Amino acid sequence: MKIIVIGGTGTIGSAVIKRLASRHEVISVGHSSGDFQVDITEIESIEKMYQSIGQFDGLISTTGKVHFGPLMEMKSAQYQQGLASKLMGQVNLVLAGLEYINDNGCFTLTSGILNRDPIVLGSSAAMVNGAIDGFVTSAAIEMPRGIRINSVSPTVIEESMPNYEAFFRGFKPVSAMEAAMAFEKSIEGKQTGKVYYVD
Ligand SMILES: NC(=O)c1ccc[n+]([C@@H]2O[C@H](COP(=O)([O-])OP(=O)(O)OC[C@H]3O[C@@H](n4cnc5c(N)ncnc54)[C@H](OP(=O)(O)O)[C@@H]3O)[C@@H](O)[C@H]2O)c1
């Protein structure tokens, strides 16, 4: 299969590529690195990327930013960052990608644990994660041409703990490779409308 990994140069994305690269043609896309570059907050940039890459069978998104901050200090603009990047960035990858994805292809997006197991400072991440999981559950029943869509909702990643551990006390991290296996299941299996929890 020809599989595009958006965020393929990141912590989770690079593990996903390691698991898939021996069996598939994998295209790594980053913001400033990778085989191709895209800014998922810009629809024109997403369109340009698909025009450059052409038809594909799988799209994995392991990217998206949110603002972490105390609820009492959060402003609308800070929530907008997560909405424009992690939520609508990934949704727009799907909407624009529908024109380029082959029959029976698969989209797999990334959410995360924080809507299920909240932490202080995480209200924007929680909001966006819940929306992503809701989107894939519903979009799955309207996908044409046998196309599937799932999301992966990992807990904190072991490799990210040096940066995040002060915010995730008591959380048991999983390795990026364990999270990557859920993307593998999504792409290489037949399930659709699923949220894969990796805790
Ligand atoms: N790490 C965790 O513990 C964890 C846990 C649960 C969920 N998640 C979620 O998993 C996703 C990936 O996390 P990560 O830790 O693997 O991220 P990461 O290591 O920071 O990597 C981010 C990737 O996204 C790319 N990127 C950044 N801004 C972009 C943009 N505007 N448009 C397109 N690509 C862009 C980066 O490209 P460049 O390298 O070129 O900048 C890089 O490939 C995020 O949605 C995060 O919320 C992470």
Note the main attributes of this structure:
single chain; 199 residues; alpha/beta; 7-stranded parallel β-sheet; 6 helices; 20% strand; globular; binds NADP nicotinamide-adenine-dinucleotide phosphate
Describe it.
The protein has 199 residues and is an alpha/beta fold. The protein has six helices and seven strands, in the order βαββαβαβαβααβ. α1 packs across α6, α2 packs parallel to α3 and α3 packs parallel to α4. The longest helix has 22 residues. The two termini are 28 Å apart. NADP nicotinamide-adenine-dinucleotide phosphate (NAP) binds next to α1.
Detail the topology: elements first, then pairings.
Blueprint: E1 2-6, H1 11-20, E2 25-30, E3 36-37, H2 43-53, E4 56-61, H3 76-97, E5 101-110, H4 123-139, E6 148-154, H5 161-164, H6 176-188, E7 195-198
Parallel strand pairs: 1-2, 1-4, 2-3, 4-5, 5-6, 6-7
Helix pairs in contact: 1-6, 2-3, 3-4
The protein binds NADP nicotinamide-adenine-dinucleotide phosphate.
NADP nicotinamide-adenine-dinucleotide phosphate is lined by residues 6-13, 30-33, 38-41, 62-64, 86, 110, 112, 154, 156-157, 160, 164.
